[in-house]
Design a protein that fits this description.
Layout: H1 5-26, H2 32-59, H3 63-67, E1 77-82, E2 87-92, H4 93-107, E3 122-126, E4 129-138, E5 142-153, E6 156-168
Parallel strand pairs: 1-6
Antiparallel strand pairs: 1-2, 3-4, 4-5, 5-6
Length: 173
């Protein structure tokens, strides 16, 4: 069956119109950047919550609360560099970190005064990972600068690495 010129033109026009509608509808510039920004803000808020809950649990000697905020695998690490008293500690893997903190809690069972909870952190998101940097004033140790590697596990942000530099208190001159 041969189609006439008008019929062929009508089919081509219908196909062209359909393709044009698909192209235009897929190029919706409405809120993509707003959604990304909102997602970033939501992720930062969730990371901030994890960090503050982990700090609170550690200072209150709440082992269960503290450990629930960490990734439990052999690739994680935690290090402290204390410039105030020239000490250093490093733990590699969940087993070492867990042992270090359990021992510390046993040797220092009294809760410590909570530092001010974090409000301002610098976050770089990388899919299900994040690089976080912040400063915190601790009433016992003084100024601390921390870097945390965060990993999203089953929808929750957890700590996969921690590096803390402790500077102590500034001396008034």
């Amino acid at each position: 069956m041969k189609l006439g010129y008008t019929s062929q033109l009508s089919q081509l026009l219908a196909i062209f119109s359909f393709c044009l509608i698909l192209i235009v509808s897929s190029c919706n510039p409405s809120t993509d950047s707003t959604k990304s920004e909102k997602t970033y803000d939501d992720e930062v808020a969730a990371i901030l919550s994890t960090l503050n809950e982990e700090t609170k649990a550690a200072f209150e000697r709440n082992y269960e609360g503290w450990q629930s905020k960490w990734v439990h695998n052999p690739d994680i690490s935690k290090s402290y560099l204390n410039f105030a008293d020239s000490s250093f500690s490093e733990s590699i893997g969940w087993g070492e970190i867990d042992h270090f903190v359990k021992t510390y809690f046993e040797e220092h069972p009294a809760p410590e005064p909570l530092p001010e909870m974090l409000e301002d952190i610098s976050v770089k998101l990388y899919g299900n990972g994040a690089w976080v940097v912040f400063e915190q004033q601790d009433s016992i140790r003084g100024l601390k600068r921390e870097t945390r590697l965060m990993e999203k596990v089953e929808g929750e942000w957890k700590i996969a690495g921690m590096s803390t530099s402790i500077y102590g208190f500034k001396e008034d001159k």
